[in-house]
Amino acid sequence: MPALELNRLMDMCSREIRMPLNEVVAVLQDLNEFVVSLDRLGSRQASGTADEFTVGKFIADWDVARRLARARRVISVALDAQLSEEDNAEIDALCDKGRFYGADSAIGPSTDQSR
Fold first, then answer.
1. Strand (E) or helix (H) holding 66
2. For residue 84, which of 24, 53, 58, 91 sits 20 to 30 Å off, Cα-Cα?
3. d(CA 8, CA 6)
4. Across residues 47-65, what is the average pLDDT?
């Protein structure tokens, strides 16, 4: 990583973003529900009392995709309002490097253990 890019990333890491408390609480509530519920589902799968269908049903019934998209939107709105267009473009580029289920026509999650 070039020194200029590293300095810029370090500068961004020290910055703070303000968000309305009610939005933060709503996102934290959703995330907490998902983490606890998925942990419980994982335990049930390990004990043989749940299968992939159960997880899929949870995701559909609890509207997980829409609620996670809302959490992403809350954070993105705060970033867009408080950072430069260049900073936001850099963050978008970093997010585009994430691991995505089904990418590259894969049936399952990546087996790449290098991350």
1. helix 64-82
2. 24
3. 5
4. 94
Neighbours of 84 (CB within 10 A): 8
The residues near 68 (Cβ < 8 Å, ≥ 6 apart) are 30, 34
The 10s digit of each residue's pLDDT in 1-15 is: 556 565 666 677 778
Residue type, 5: E
Rounded distance between C-alpha atoms, residue 68 and residue 60, angstroms: 12
pLDDT tens digits, one per residue of 25-49? 999 999 999 999 999 999 999 999 9
